[in-house]
Write a structure and sequence with these properties.
Structural class: mainly alpha
Distance between the termini: 11 Å
Number of strands: 0
Shape: globular
Radius of gyration: 28 Å
Helix content: 55-70%
Number of helices: 11
Keywords: Membrane, Transmembrane, Transmembrane helix
Length: about 375
């Protein structure tokens, strides 16, 4: 919405300036002169909006994609113990039971700060970002091409986006390998696996694509079935207390249903895909976090007659509950960060608008009819 309001405000500023110039040169004396929107004000608003986009993307990429991917593949830390030497001092801690001295290190991905410190400098937060852009662009192009055929145009565009994701499955696979491994001198193009690897990741990629579509469309259809989409803001405002309560309960029900789908089908499908992709990490690439490439013996190398990839069911089963809880906490933290940033930037934008033109003058830049567009 902001990307519509800000350009509209800038445009109205220039229109106001032209109107004032015309009035000063002998225009209609009966018309009230429009306030002039300063150019520096538009620059401040646009700059703030751009900064908001950058911050939100950083949160989404670093904390919403990179760190969760590492959580999904990190193996549980093993207990570290040692055999103590004997000593004559009975009170010495060295003579204590070795089980009391076992130290269980925390996972590297136990916190955002610990993970980022382990990855390295500031650039490590954007590891694989070029491959991410390439993958996103390629999937978008393929989806557009597929949906452009007249014979296929009756099929909804999201379906073709899912098909494009499966067709380009090697690109997200490459991004996962770059994200979970140490920096490599190889270029992103050289790290793309061969086409024979595609069939190993096609099925879990398709499952995730279907899960994501279901998590979006099923709540929409539920909202339509309950009549929420038929309600306009003006109608809700004139409802009595009981009707407003019923509408609010329906909305909360749809929201709860959407969250349930995300936790029950999207996250398991995402974890399964990432772990399948990680099982295909080349032996020459060193992982960034402790990672059991055999997944507890579930992966049989191709050199001994195996498939060289973990099965989808085993990929989810070997993801222990501690890691699942840590992953959910990470997603909740990302959501809280995004909400906090949105609130802060909204306050900043309102303060800037008041500083630039004041409360009363800003009303002149908005249409009197709320249904009109800026």
């Amino acid at each position: 919405m902001l990307n519509t309001i800000v350009p509209g405000l800038v445009r109205r500023g220039f229109e106001a300036h032209a109107s004032m110039t015309q009035n000063q040169g002998g225009g209609n004396d009966g018309e009230e002169p429009q306030p002039q929107f300063p150019v520096w004000g538009g620059i401040i608003l646009v700059s703030t909006f751009i900064l908001l986009i950058v911050v939100m993307f950083t949160i989404d990429y670093t904390f919403g994609k990179l760190v969760p991917t590492l959580i999904m593949i990190e193996s549980p830390p093993e207990s570290i113990g040692f055999e103590p030497l004997s000593t004559e001092d009975p009170d010495s801690t060295i003579n204590k039971d070795p089980e009391e001295l076992l130290v269980k290190p925390q996972p590297i991905t136990s916190s955002f700060r610990r993970t980022l410190r382990h990855l390295g400098g500031f650039r490590a937060r954007f590891r694989g970002i070029l491959m991410y852009f390439i993958s996103t662009f390629a999937i978008g192009v393929v989806g557009s091409i597929l949906s452009a055929f007249p014979i296929l145009s009756y099929i909804p565009r999201p379906f073709w986006n899912g098909v494009a994701t499966v067709v380009c499955a090697l690109l997200p696979l490459t991004w996962t390998h770059i994200a979970i491994s140490q920096p490599s001198p190889k270029t992103w193009f050289r790290r793309i696996p061969s086409m024979k690897t595609w069939k190993k990741v096609a099925a879990p990629t398709a499952v995730l694509a279907v899960a994501e579509q279901l998590s979006v469309f099923l709540p929409v259809y539920l909202a339509m079935a309950t009549g929420l989409t038929d309600k306009k803001p003006k109608e809700i405002a004139y409802m009595n207390g009981g009707q407003q309560t019923a509408t609010a309960c329906k909305g909360l029900g749809v929201l709860a249903f959407s969250l349930a789908l995300s936790f029950l089908i999207v996250i398991p499908a995402k974890v399964t895909l990432v772990r399948v992709q990680a099982s295909l990490l080349p032996d020459t690439d060193e992982s960034s976090v402790p990672f059991d490439r055999s997944f507890g013996g579930k992966v049989v190398p191709e050199i001994v007659g195996g498939s060289g990839v973990i099965g989808m069911l085993d990929a989810w089963k070997t993801f222990d509950w501690a890691s699942r809880i840590r992953l959910i906490k990470a997603y909740l933290k990302v959501f809280a960060m995004q909400v906090g940033v949105t609130v802060v930037f909204t306050i900043c934008l309102i303060a800037e608008m008041i500083m630039i033109a004041g409360v009363k003058d800003w009303a002149r830049f908005f249409p009197k009819d709320g249904d009109q567009q800026l």
